[in-house]
Amino acid sequence: MDLVVWNSDFDxxxxxxxxxxxxxxxxxxxxxxxxSGRGPLDPPAEEMLSRCEGVARRQEAAxxxxxxxxxxAPRSMLTARYLVTVGDALAAVSHWNLAAEAHRRVRDQVGSxxxxxxxxxxxxxxxxxxxxxGDVQGxxxxxxxxxxxxxxxxxxxxxxxxxxxxxxxxxDQLCWRRLSQVEPPDAHARIARLMEHVSLLAAEGDDxxxxxxxxxxxxxxxxxxxxx
Length: 228
Known about the structure:
Layout: H1 2-6, H2 20-36, H3 42-61, H4 77-92, H5 96-110, H6 117-132, H7 136-144, H8 148-155, H9 159-178, H10 187-202, H11 207-227
Helix pairs in contact: 2-4, 3-4, 4-5, 4-6, 5-6, 6-7, 6-9, 7-9, 8-9, 9-10, 9-11, 10-11
């Protein structure tokens, strides 16, 4: 958990860019744990989830209680960010149920900030994890609770919201397919346009921020491809 904190760049970029590095490194460590034969991943992962709130609380105590992050949300969103990092890393090693639980817990943290990029990501990822675990109904329930109209308004300006919109349409498309129903006819073209837009936005910046943008884009492409 300390390494997750150390590898998170909460002052760089917006939304999930700040933790792209931490997510990639944690997924690698989870993969190594599984390959080493040290036992099930669930116990250490569940312990990490329970520690997320404590770690965030210690960091918040060291800062002004009314300080806001890059998107104007209170620092209490820090817990949600850590939960998302652990959840995304679990999804990367196909631990779908535990990953879904990590993202579900984000709902307890976001409060009135349901349109925050991190909250949007958690909702879409929870739907995705339910789908990959074979729970199509759970996927539909989480998908239907997402405010797509608000995402569309923000997607032209915010890289991570455009990315989440592409992720949403990819999950939605696969959900329709799993239901053996006709998927939206323009889904592929819509996702392609959004990915092109995200790629253009990701080309901005330099140094560490550029690295985070490129890593975030690579991870996004990997998930979109897995849903195609």
